[in-house]
Specification:
Length: about 200
């Protein structure tokens, strides 16, 4: 027998008014199609587990989303939308959903895939090459300790600094961030050093 999670009840009640009927409907459909599924929260959103990840749903400020973990094998290609998280795009009303019979079919198919141990090969997201902006490069050349520390950082730690610097909206903000970055880098600190466990 499946299991409901009180945190999902709370999530639905805290969602925007338009979202509550959508989330309640999706929840009911998943439990009807897969009575053995169990609810949990992952990434702060409700998810349904059945021999692994089955599906998840989410509520945002102006829309909801439904995501099947093996969506490329579950949702018909013609029904997929890429305009939001999940396979069905932006859901703003129950009328945006496919018919209940279609949803039931998809949930049952997703459960059958999990029964059979089918996996979906996921391609890692392509990462942009790391290009050090001229102002950071010049600042690092002036501080040999920072230059050495930056060179020793992993590509992901370097990318954290580069994105923080290049995402600045104004020149003033970028200058402040550059000064802070060089200071932290010279101390061997990653961009998110305050949140790292020691």
């Amino acid at each position: 027998m499946g299991k409901k999670d009180a945190r999902v009840d709370a999530y639905i009640e805290q969602s925007a008014e338009f979202a509550r009927p959508i989330l309640k409907h999706l929840r009911a459909v998943v439990h009807e199609a897969c009575p053995e599924c169990e609810e949990t929260l992952k990434w702060r959103h409700p998810h349904f587990m059945y021999k692994g990840m089955l599906a998840g749903m989410a509520s945002f400020k102006e829309h909801c989303a439904l995501n099947f973990w093996k969506g490329s094998l579950v949702v018909d290609a013609g029904a997929r939308s890429a305009d939001a998280m999940g396979q069905l795009g932006r859901l703003t009303a129950i009328s945006d959903l496919p018919p209940k019979a279609t949803l039931l079919k998809w949930v049952r198919h997703a459960a059958a895939l999990n029964d059979d141990g089918v996996t979906v090969k996921r391609e890692p997201a392509a990462k942009k090459p790391i290009t050090v902006p001229a102002d950071l490069s010049a600042a690092l050349k002036k501080n040999k300790k920072a230059q050495a520390a930056f060179a020793a950082f992993s590509p992901s730690k370097q990318r954290d600094y580069l994105e923080w610097l290049t995402d600045a909206k104004s020149d003033d903000t970028r200058r402040r961030r550059l000064a802070t970055a060089v200071e932290w880098i010279s101390e061997g600190k990653s961009r998110h050093w305050k949140y790292e466990t020691r």
